[in-house]
Amino acid sequence: MNTKDANELKRGAGYLKEKAILGLSKVTGNELDRAIFKVTSHKLKAPKEKYMQRVLAATHGHCNNKSHKGRDVCPYIVAELEKRLHTHNWIVILKTMVTFHRLLRDGSAEVNNVIQENRNIFCTRNIKDISESTEGAIQGVFIRQYLYYLEERTSAQRKLGVSRRIESNDFSLFLRSLDADTLGAVFDILLEQLAALVEIGYTETIVDNFCSMEAFQMLVNDGKLLYQIISDRSIFILDRFTGFTLTQKKEWVEHFRRYITTGEKLRTLFSSIRNSKRIFHDPPPELKPIPMSLLDSLERDVRLSSLQPEHTTESLESLGITRDNSNPQEINASAPPDGSSLYSSVEQEYPWDKQSDKSKVAIDDLFGRPSGTDNNYQAFADSKPLQAPMGQEFSFAPASNASLPGFANEGALSNANFSGGWVPTPNASGMQQPPGTQFAPNNAM
């Protein structure tokens, strides 16, 4: 007996075993086993929705028994379905994959956890050779591509969390709570899942039965949802792209490069399905091509941003400029400095030779003191501020007979008893009178 005949015999034995289990389930009333074998039967048609709903309901706890054959319901369902993958019949394998796909989408969180814990379920190495038959050889390529997508979907679900399935409203709320930095990782996870989906090839020879059409219908549904989610978040990023830092812009340009490439492949896949002779109950939409000018404008923005230096705030300390506190000078803001302190500060500022009168610079040289007023001027410099009588204000007028605006008149100057070159007259300037001088209000003069 050659290998082909042996495989045919095994497929026949599997069919007889399936019929025996289905007959026994009617007697024992084991509805769960009956539903599992019905959705993965040898008949070349899509899994019957009636039995699919029973399997899904059992994962949510709607079952007569909480355990089955000594195991919890969800681990038992996953184990029985995994056994159905290890067969030479491509129909059973494909229908089992469709059932797993439904569990990932509509099953409970518990059954999703069980599937993710067993990472070898969708490993292509565990699939037996189905290429002996002509139909098996044709469907074998699609089955391996489908297995790879289910593995990527399981991996993406593991990274995102069981409670964040792309079909749930919680996942949509979760996405809207992310900013540009935290969204990047989730964006990559979704792109990886979509990239695995678009690698599946569609041909008329593969989709020549209702079982394959059901599988492609579920793939179309996943593709539409993934593309909608990714496109929505892409618009969110594009609206804020100009305000990003240079590092953020570079990262998102790479994300958009992958998004545009994957989106074009999805558009080609959907176009092939839509233009085929097969009629799907929920056909894929017509996707518009993403313009390459979008990526060009983003890259141009990155180049312009790299030419502009980022604005940074520098402090004096960061520039090496520090304050010298070795000789701090205290300033008394309550009263202005008198003449002696001013003179001493000038000498400190200009420490010329004090022994030489020619080189000595005093306050007189700086401020141009009039000659012949040594005593009075020094007395004025050493005196304390003179307090004016209540209601009077002082000012100084030049000791000259010339009348100047704002100074005392000629009569006031002749009556003033002042040995220096200035006489005090009251005005609104608030000046003070040197000691040893007399003053009179303007109205008294």
UniProtKB/TrEMBL annotation:
Signal peptide: none annotated. Residues 307-357, 424-445 are annotated as: Disordered. CDD domains: ANTH_N. One of its GO terms (cellular component) is clathrin-coated pit. Gene3D superfamilies: 1.25.40.90, ANTH domain (1.20.58.150). Keywords: Coated pit, Endocytosis, Membrane. It is found in: Membrane, Clathrin-coated pit. Its main location: membrane. One of its GO terms (molecular function) is 1-phosphatidylinositol binding. GO terms for biological process: clathrin coat assembly; clathrin-dependent endocytosis; vesicle budding from membrane. Residues 24-164 form the ENTH domain. Residues 323-332, 426-445 have a biased composition (Polar residues). This is WGS project CAEQ00000000 data, annotated contig 559.
